[in-house]
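Lab notebook page, bench 4
Experiment: in silico fold of construct C2
Operator: M.H.
Input chain length: 288 residues
Purpose: comparison with the prior construct
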Amino acid sequence: MPSYSLYMGCSVPANYPNYEASMNLIAGRLGMQMEYLTDVACCGSPNLRAMDYWGWVVVNARTLAVADRIGHDIVTPCNGCFGSLKDVYHLLKHDSKYRDRVNDELKQDHLEFKGISRPRHFIEALYTDVTIDVIRKQITRPLDGVGIAIHYGCHLLRPTDVTEITPTILDELVEVTGAQVVEYPLWKQCCGATVLPVDEDLAIRLARDKLKSMKESGAVFAVVVCPACCNQLDLQQLGLKESYGEEFNLPVLFYPQILGLAMGLDASEVGLEMNRVPAGPLLQHMSG
């Protein structure tokens, strides 16, 4: 199994240790060798990109150059980090003038962007490198058809020519756990996370509409692969009763959490107690 440079970003370690812990546990069981990437900075998504595009390019180019020096692909569990790294990687691979300008900047740190280390999302590495067949052999406690609504998140899929991820891989990764993917009309809609700093009412409405679409389509819980999306769909449920008089009680889990459960890890190992909306419906289904 390949080795990877693990880029955690800011939000996962600060807010979602359950995501980090469950990811590392299943990666170890699946033979993925991941070493934390050090001496790197925040990716700056989305604020730095909006305020200082050149600064955003340089900070992500520097992370890519640090990884190039090691020689392993970068893996990240964060859609925002993935989007930033992938966008800058694509820019520098296709624009020699930008690449030369960036490398002039990086010389002071004795670094150079070479494009050796590709930015990868953790679920893409699971799907492409580990493969569904290998994962299937590790499933010891299948989820027995429980209905899961998938939220991919914007930065994982857009733009497709840059991300190179098709909106089917997470469906297959969910199905291999034994769960049933619930189709819902608003699956492409943004969760509203990046809108939150500038228009809180709109951001809450976007989350509410998405959760309502999931619930009305029969989902028992939802799965995400992005800390910002989880914060929006999980935490916002606590405020929706006040804003709209509605309670969804829809647990929102990270994909490594549900895969870990299907692989036989217990609730504490995947950090279910850290989820804001209790995962009782899922646990009841599994024990029923």
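Observations: The mean pLDDT is 95. Strands lie at 3-6, 33-36, 73-76, 119-121, 147-150, 180-181, 221-224, 252-254.
Next step: discuss at group meeting.
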